[in-house]
Amino acid sequence: MESSCEDIFVARQPIFDTSGNIWGYELLYRSSASAVGAQINDENLATIKVISDGFSLVCESLLNSQKLLVNFPCSLLTSEAAFALPSDKCIVEILENVYPSKDVLDSLHVLLANNYTLALDDYIGQEELKPFLPFVKIVKIDILALDSLDQANEIVKSLEGNGVILLAEKVEDIFTYEKLMDMGFVLFQGYFFARPEVVPGKKVSAQEVSKINLLNELGKDDLDVVRLSEIVKSDPSISFRLLKYINMAGQNTGRCIDSVERAITVLGRRQLVQWLRAVILSDMSSSMKANELSFMAVNRGFFFQALSNLVSCYEFQPETMFLIGILTLVDSIMEISLSDILKPLALDDKIKNVMLDTDAKLTPFIELVRAYEKWDVNKIKTLVTSLSLDLDVVDAIYNKSFAKTLAIMKSVAN
User: Fold this and answer.
1) Measured distance between the N- and C-terminal CA atoms of the chain, rounded to whole angstroms
2) CATH 1.10.3210.10 location in the chain
3) Does the model's pTM come out above 0.85?
């Protein structure tokens, strides 16, 4: 299928430093999931689409010091396409299939002269990629492509003296993360940060129980405007952020917003409930890692909610699926086992059973959203097919969920 602008799927993956802070993101793109693998028939079109839409979508949520890595195919390296991106924010990533021809190397000289930072993707010591090393500041090493961590250590030693920053990608667990840090890697990309890391002896506080019960209350069918007003008014910062969100989301029609009740009317019950859940979850996050997990949790909420409208075999209402999506990462956010978190909560037993996977009903949803988060295109295709869904429809759902999450999480920041 010919690639068109509508076929481009954009996502992001966080990159962490040795302190667990988010150093930046990689901006990822591919053609629609129904295309073969991750192939993009017109690579120029795909990258231009990232430049025009992906960058504008993500950049507003970045902190001042955070960077964006963007993949550049060979044809765009030799054009002036990179100049559409700000050199202080964006890093040009050279793909591993780019050949270091004279034209390409000349283009890299020009980019460096214009203060662009360059990164080399998927380097594992290939001879054909070594001509790029004098140009790049960052070298990315795919850990899953190596036979062992010893091989990673050998690559690190071979790069000593080059003055490059080492970035380990596809880091899947904390053990690997710590080993790579000892070897000299300073940046890390992968799913390791999303895996629950239970702190022994840590208990669920009364305040946290109250907040999660409030998340549940927000999903009740009989929740009225009066109770919503009480929830918003209970915290002055929530009232302030609500007004900020209304203005950001373009919901204010020009009429004066003179009360919380008026703000609720302008925004609407359903959208306000989604926003409040994001606020509550964000306020439970105490680190950049937890903030990113909160982003992922809200994104999962939107994704599960929309996906449940297409999958008839699930007994939960879409609003409940939003809550379930959020709860799938609450153990990682709070660093407490999920069973300990769920015990004191006033949740329906059906929700608790699904969360603890006693009936495995949630498994297809979890596996699918993880495949998107890991950028595992082949697995996405397999899982969507197993659910008898259309790949392009599910892609569109994930895109919309991502855009909604960006808007909401930006508004809830203090």
Assistant:
1) 44
2) 206-412
3) no
CA distance to 97, 210, 263, per residue, from 348 (Å): 52, 16, 31
Number of H helices, E strands in the chain: 19, 8
Q: What is the pLDDT of residues 76-120, one digit of tens each?
A: 888 878 888 889 999 999 998 999 999 999 999 999 999 999 999
The class level of CATH for 206-412 reads mainly alpha
CATH 3.20.20.450 residue ranges for the chain:
5-194
CA distance 217 to 152: 49
Do residues 6 and 396 touch, judged by C-beta distance below 8 A?
Answer: no
The whole-angstrom separation of Cα 55 and Cα 8 is 13
Give the confidence band of 42 by pLDDT, cuts at 50, 70, 90: low
Measure the CA–CA gap between 275 and 161, rounded to whole angstroms. 49
Residue 292: DSSP 8-state: H
Specify the amino acid at residue 7. Answer: D
> What's the CA gap between 16 and 289, in Å, rounded?
8
What residues contact 270, with CB distance under 8 A and at least 6 apart?
A: none
H-type helices in 234-336, by residue range? 236-248, 260-267, 269-283, 288-308, 318-327, 330-334
Its sign, for the CA torsion 323, 356, 386, 395, is: positive
DSSP structure string for 140-161? EEEGGGSS-HHHHHHHHHHTTT
**Tens digit of each residue's pLDDT (9 = 90 or more) over 307-360:** 988 886 567 888 888 888 988 998 888 888 888 888 877 788 888 888 887 667
Which CATH architecture describes the domain 5-194? Alpha-Beta Barrel (3.20)
